[in-house]
Amino acid sequence: MADKGETSMELYLDTADLAEIRRLYELYPLDGVTTNPGILARTGGDPVKALRGIRDIIGPDALMFAQVIPSDAEGMVRDARAILKLLGDNTVVKVPAVPEGFRAIRLLSKQGVRTCGTVVYAPMQGFMAAKAGAEYVAPYVNRIDNLGYDGVGVSTQLHDMIAAHHLPAKVLAASFRNTQQVQDLCRHGIAAATCAPAVLEGLVKNPAVDGAVRDFADAFAGLAGEENGMAELVG
Ligand code: G3P
After folding, report:
1. What are the beta bridge partners of residue 34?
2. Which residue, by CA, sits nearest to atom 5 of ligand 1?
3. Does the C-beta of 192 come closer than 6 Å to ligand 1?
4. For residues 105 and 77, what is the distance between their CA atoms, to the nearest angstrom?
5. Closest ligand 1 atom to Cα of 38
6. Distance separating alpha carbons of residues 190 and 183, to the nearest angstrom
7. Are 123 and 223 members of one domain?
8. Do residues 211 and 130 share a domain?
9. pLDDT tens per residue, range 92-151
10. 228 and 149 in a common domain
11. Spatial distance between the Cα atoms of 91 and 86, rounded to a whole number of angstroms
């Protein structure tokens, strides 16, 4: 069941690795970059510099996600303001979908700040963030799977619950380990997904396709000579 009025699934890169962002952003039709404190810690270095670096690469129009650090609502709101000051418009502030987070999401949405209720492990948790005013809610598919539950199922239930209650929130599925999880959600019409570089590339990686593309190049080289494409032949 596709979201009403939505176009294609939004696709984000879930990393703070600047070299990977630069490389993959050139190749894939991406809508922006998502980060969290764990991702920034894994990349290392100054987190402010890293976030600014991502914004410089993707430009002012792409959507960027950055997460608040404090555990109380007032602190979350302060962090949200700092994130917006650092990254400008087209930034979504990620707020953990916990009780203090629901309060922060309500306060921020009243101020017109775009938020994402994150670290969602259960449908009602995401529903609560959506009801508080979050524009996105992010279920952690693989982490749910690792607990012995069904990450794709939690995400599709949340998607359906939001649609059934006409909430404007979008499900931004996150924490993927394999392409099947992303594909199942894409098929269900999930609004958005964010993938680590390896998962993104895995979506289309196929040695049979590489072989077929090579065969076309070899066949044409036999006809027109190595390195000659249509541009060389037509002039
Ligand atoms: O965007 C959230 C995501 O980064 C969490 O993924 O890999 O830490 O389970 P992971």
Report:
1. 14, 65
2. 175
3. no
4. 8
5. 8
6. 10
7. no
8. no
9. 999 999 999 999 999 999 999 999 999 999 999 999 999 999 999 999 999 999 999 999
10. no
11. 10
